[in-house]
Each structure stands twice: as structure tokens, then as C-alpha cells.
Amino acid sequence: MVKMSKETKQRLQQVFRCGQFAIRWGFIPTILYLGFRRGGDPGMPEPNLLSLLWG
Fold first, then answer.
1. By the 8 A CB rule, do 47 and 36 touch?
2. How far apart are CA 42 and CA 34, in angstroms?
3. How many CA atoms lie within 13 A of 29 on its CB side?
4. Closest listed residue to residue 37, CA positions, set 23, 55, 14, 29
5. Which of 1, 11, 14, 26 is the least crowded, having the fewest Cβ atoms under 10 Å away?
6. pLDDT per residue over 1-46, tens digit each?
7. Residues 6 or more apart from 35 whose CB is under 8 A from it?
């Protein structure tokens, strides 16, 4: 097993915490963005924020 210094372990923990935060808070907005960018099926109206809030 590789020996790591205390500072290295702390930095890795910080990186993993930042990664978890980014995944938790960024997953759904990313999926929504990709959905809006790609659009609906052929023949369907383009989605917009107002139609999502109204329905």
C-alpha cells in the first residue's frame, strides 16, 4: 500500500468532497440542460420554462 502524508490525505478528502458536491448539485441541472438543448421528439413543440411551470 502506498504511504501518504497527512497533507496528501486531506487534499484527497477535499477533492472527493468537492466532487460529491458537484455531482449532487449538478446532476439534475445538467440533465435539464441537455433535455432543453436537444429538444423533444420530432413533431413535438419546443419545451420552454413557462410551459413547464404551467403544466
1. yes
2. 16
3. 5
4. 29
5. 1
6. 788 899 999 999 999 999 999 999 999 888 888 877 776 677 777 7
7. 47
- DSSP string for 29-52: HHHHHHHHHH-SSTTSPPP-HHHH
State the cell numbers at 49. 420554462
pLDDT surpassing 70 at residue 53? yes
Measure Cα distances from 13 to 21, 23, 39, 53 in Å: 12, 15, 38, 39
What's the rounded Cα separation, in Å, for the pair 42 and 4?
A: 54
Q: What is the pTM of this model?
A: 0.55
